[in-house]
Amino acid sequence: MTTWAWGAAIDNGQEAPAILERARADVDPELRSAVDTLPPEMRRVARYHFGWQDADGLATTAHAGKAIRPALVLTAADALGGARARTAAVRAAAAVELVHNFTLLHDDVMDRDPTRRHRATAWAVFGDPDAILAGDALQALAFRLLAGDSHPAAVPALGRLASCVVELCEGQQIDTALERREPREVGLAEVLRMAEAKTGALLGCACAIGGLYAGGSADEVDALDLFGRQAGLAFQLIDDVIGIWGDPLHTGKPAGADLAARKKSLPVVAALTSGGSAADELAALYSGPYVEGELERTALAVERAGGRDWAQAEAADRMGDAVAELARAVPDPERGGGLLALAEFVTRRSN
């Protein structure tokens, strides 16, 4: 049996920032071309959201995101099929990025997040209706890109991406439903399921689509999907930790915003279900609305109840599962090193 080591990506000289930069450079023209086909008002919102222009329509160089999902598409295609497969998958990678940004536009509206990527969210600038409609349009553009792709993998990729969107919506629905329930009525299993649907599903889909464009077997494509899902869960666990204890100068969001909103994130639910006095204190805090000045006390209660330690340990376990699936899909560590580098990048970050 082939075994993998977490250091494989570094040993092979495949560093995530370079992979992401290359993916962004390859995919950006497809994204801009697709967005430019939108009606003027939706195009304006979408271009603002992507960081290509400001609220007045002037060109800007605001941060457009890390391009993790398109990078996974292209890197998976390269791992299984080489450079030709990677080139063929650029349009599909752009479609995945469009779907991701559709979810961001909608999530920001539903969560009432005022900032993303260090500036005001689209709904805060243009209003809810325009942000929602722009998100809808990005989803339609994603499907149109794949529908117009003549590559044999485009049809199965389109079906897989459509199924993923349904799962993404399910995850968001579960998330909003959980927020309406009392703190101790929520269990870890259902929150993990929500996180897999909201985050893991699209990362898995991205890897699987790359495998499809490389002509991978059904087993290889499924293993890539599972790799992405497990890495996605590890990503969400770390993201939830950062959402509580991260530096807003790096995250672009206010410190402790999830706690103030009484979000039942993974560290919080782990803490609430741990038992003990710290869990009781946290449950009491979460049972009422946020009171100014309670963030530090709430974060400390989560930490004392074991939420932070559990989330970090669980992220490591999920990453281990991801590596096992990657070894099944791509037995040669040298070929799969780029995928491992990306997974390490999103799960080892500190902000």
UniProtKB/TrEMBL annotation:
MF terms in GO: metal ion binding; prenyltransferase activity
Native organism: Streptomyces roseirectus
Keyword annotations from UniProtKB, A to Z: Magnesium, Metal-binding, Transferase
One Gene Ontology term from the biological process aspect of the record: isoprenoid biosynthetic process
CDD domains: Trans_IPPS_HT
Similarity field: Belongs to the FPP/GGPP synthase family.
SUPFAM superfamilies in UniProt: Terpenoid synthases (SSF48576)
Protein name: Polyprenyl synthetase family protein
The organism's place on the tree of life at top rank: Bacteria
InterPro entries in the record: Isoprenoid_synthase_dom_sf, Polyprenyl_synt, Polyprenyl_synt_CS
